[in-house]
Automatic annotation (TrEMBL), chain A:
UniProt keyword Nucleotidyltransferase present: no
Transmembrane region(s): 6-23, 35-57, 77-94, 101-123, 135-157, 169-191, 197-218
Family: Belongs to the TMEM147 family.
Entry keyword annotation includes Metal-binding: no
Organism for this UniProt entry: Oopsacas minuta
Keywords on record: Cell membrane, Endoplasmic reticulum, Membrane, Transmembrane, Transmembrane helix
The protein's name: BOS complex subunit TMEM147
Subcellular locations according to the entry: Cell membrane; Endoplasmic reticulum membrane
UniProtKB/TrEMBL annotation, chain B:
Membrane topology value: Single-pass membrane protein
Protein's cellular compartments: Endoplasmic reticulum membrane
Main location: endoplasmic reticulum
Protein name per UniProt: Nicalin
Transmembrane segments: 522-542
InterPro entries linked: Nicalin
GO cellular component term, pick one: endoplasmic reticulum membrane
Protein family membership: Belongs to the nicastrin family.
Positions in coiled-coil regions: none
Species, as recorded: Oopsacas minuta
Gene Ontology BP annotations: regulation of signal transduction
Keywords: Endoplasmic reticulum, Glycoprotein, Membrane, Signal, Transmembrane, Transmembrane helix
Keyword Translocase: no
Amino acid sequence: MTFFYFVSSGAVTFAPCLFLWRLTPLADSPFLYRFLTVGAIYIITQFSKFLLIATFFPEYDILTHNFVFIQEFFKCTMYIVELIGMEIALLYFSHKFDYRVLTVGSSWATCQAIASKLLPLWFGGRSYEFSWDVIVLALRSNVELVLMLSTVYLIFIIINSKRYANQSLYSISLLFLITYYPLLISYIGIIKSVSQLMLLIAEFLFSTSVAAGTYLLYSRSLIKV
Amino acid sequence: MILDISLGLESERSTALPFVWLAIVFLLALPQTVSLKELTLYRLAHYEALGSLYGSPTTLIDMELATVNSTTNLARKCLIAPLEILGINLFTELVERNIGAMVVMIPDELSKLGIHARDRWLELETQLLTPDVPIPVYFAPSEQHQWRQVYEGVKANELIHASPFSFGYLRFVSTQYNHALRTVSTQGVQSPALLKNVTLLNLQGSLGGENKNPTITLSANIDTFCSSPLQCYGYRACGGVASLLAIASLFSRLYADEQSRPDYNILFLLTLGGGSNLNFISLKKAIESPEKLKTSYLHVHSKFSISLDDLGGERLYAHFVKTPNEGTFGASFVNRLEANMKIGVVSEDREVSVVTRKVNKLSFDNQAWPHEQFYLSRVVGTTLSSNSEADSPLSHSVLDREGGYSEDYLYENTQAIAETLAQIIFNSKQDNITYLKGTHSIDRSYLKAIHKFIYKYPRPIQALGSHNVLIKTLKDWLSAASTEFDFAKIEINTREDGSYEFYDELQLITEVSKVKPPIFDLMLFLVVLLYLGVIGGCMYWVREWVNKRKRKEKYN
C-alpha cells in the first residue's frame, strides 16, 4: 500500500458522506453546527457504551479471535445504547427543521467512519504492502452508511409512533435485526472463516434488504420526513 | 464538477473547507511506510585490503524482486536465486542484463548439493571475493524458511505471459503481486561505517618450558573467511583448531607426570588473524616479535613447526618449502606420520604426500601457507592439510558446512599426528612402538565436542574479539592444557603489514512486501472514480427529484 491507496480508500470511505451533505437537500442548510452537535452526542454515547462494557464485562477481550457467544451477544446488545444516542439526537432536532433523519443519519455515519475507519486506513496506508483489506474496509463504511440512514428512519418512526402507529412493530423488528445481525456476521467470519470480501457482500445484501424494507415503510407513509 | 464539490471548493458553500485543510495536513504528515515481513540478509564481505576495496559499498536498496526466469526487463531489479543454479556464466549474463542487486539463497542441506552445482558456485564465489564486483550481493540465511516462500511467490507471479490489454492480464494484475525488497540499516546509517575495534589475537600455551630443550611448535588459525562473513562457519577450517586442542589436552597429561616428561617443549599457538586472507599477520607477529608473551623464549629454541590446516581428508599433504632431505627432522616426521596413519582402522592405503612450494622473500603478499612464515624466521616447518593447493575454494566458502566430511578422518589424522609427536619426543628408535594407547590417546568424543562447539560460531575476523564467548572458551581450554599460557593483542602496522579495514553492517533487516504494479494503481483509481461518480450522480438525482416534488406540492 502506498499513499495512493490511502487516498483512494479514503475517498471511498468519506466521499459518500460528503456527497450526502453536498448533493442532497441537506446542501441547502448549514450543516457544520448540526454535524458537530451530532458528533458530541456520538462521543458521549460511545463513552457510555465503553463504560457499560467495562463495568459489566471487565474481562472482555477485543483481541481474541474465538467466537464466544455470550461476549458477541453482549457486544451486539450494547448497540442499543447507540440507538438511544441516535434517538436523543433526533429528539434534540425535533421540530427545528426538515430532513433531520438525513442530518442525524449522515452525521452519525460520518462520525462512525472517522472513529472506526480513519486509523485502520491510516495504518493501511502507511504499510508498504498492498492489501485488499483496506479497500474492503472502505466499502464497508459505505454499507454502514446505508444501514445507518435506515436505522435512523426506523427510530424516527418509533419516536413518532402516534403518527405511524401501524408501522412501529415493523420498525422495532427491523431494529432488532439490525442490532443482532453482527452476531451472525462474526459467527460466519470466525467459525466458518469466510473471507473479508464475502463478509462484505453478506453485509451489503443485509443492508440493502433492510434499506428496501425501510423504503417500503417510507413510501407507505405519505407524510414528509 | 463532482470532484470540485466533494473537495468543498465550491465558492458559496465553504463550510467543508476546514475539514479539507485538516485532511491535507494529515496527508502531508503521512509517515514512512512499514511492511509486514521482516527478514534477515547478510552482506557480501566488505573490506579494504592492501589498497583494494572488496565487496560493494552499497548497503541499502529498495527494488522489486525478480527471478532468473523472468521474461521482463531485469534492469534495476533485485534478483533472487537459489545458490544451486548460480554460476559465473549466469552471473555475467545477469550483470549484462543490468540487474540492480542479487540475493543468494543458501540451501538447507549443503550435502545434497550436486557436485556440478557446488563447483559452479565455488567458481562464482571466488569471483565475488575479487575487488571488482559490479553489484551489491546479499545472502539469505537458510534458517529463514520465509525466504523460500518469498522466492516461490516471486516465481509464481512471473508466470504470466499475457498481453497487457487482454482479460487474462487484467485478472492477473488484480490477483497477483510483485514483491518489493527493501533493506534497512540496523544502525540507521546510509553507508556502512568502518569497524574500529577489529582485534587480532595470539593465544599461546606451552608444555615443558625447560630453557635448554628444543621446542616443537603447533599452530592453527581460528578465524575463517568467506563471501558472507556472518555465515562463515568453516566446518573443515576449524578441524585444525580442534585437533590442536585435543593434542594439547593429551600431552598435558603426559607432561604432568615428572617421570614421563620428555626432553622437548611443545608450544601451542592459536592465532586470530593468522590466515592467508590477512597475510598471516598474527602468525608473523607471534614469530617475529614475541617480546610481549611470557612464552616467547621458546621460539628461540624452536626446532620444528607444524601448522594444522583442514585435517578432514583421507590423504594428508605435508607442505614444505624444500623437500626434506633424508635424515632430517622433517623427513622422519613425514615417514613416521605416514606409518602411523596406516595403523588407523578407517582405511589402510592412506598416505602423506610431500608438496613443496618456493617462498619469494621479497614479495609482500604472496605467501600461501603458515609454515612459510616460520621459514622466513629460520624455523623449519610444515603445514599439514588435506588440500594439495593453498586457498582451495571450499575452505573459503559459505559451503564449508557440516556434511560431506568424515569425522573419522579428522580423528584418525589427529591420532596419527599425536602418535608421531610422541614417538619423536620420546626419542623412539623403533618405528612400530605405539605410545598412545587406551586412555593415553586422543579422546574421540572430546575432539568431536570441541569441533562441534567451534563450528557453532561464525568466525569472521570482524565479529571475533577478546570478549567473544568462543575466544574466551578457547583461552580457557588452552590455558588448562598448558603449563604456561599467555595471550597478546596485535596491532596492525599499516606500513609493514599493509592496511586492512573492515566495514560494518554485515547483517541487514530486510522488508519484503507485496506490491501492485503501477498499472493496477491506475485501474484502481479509475474504478474508485467511477464508483464515486455513480453514487454522487444518484444522490444528485434524488435531490432533483425531491426538489421537483416540493415544487409540485407548492403548486398543489
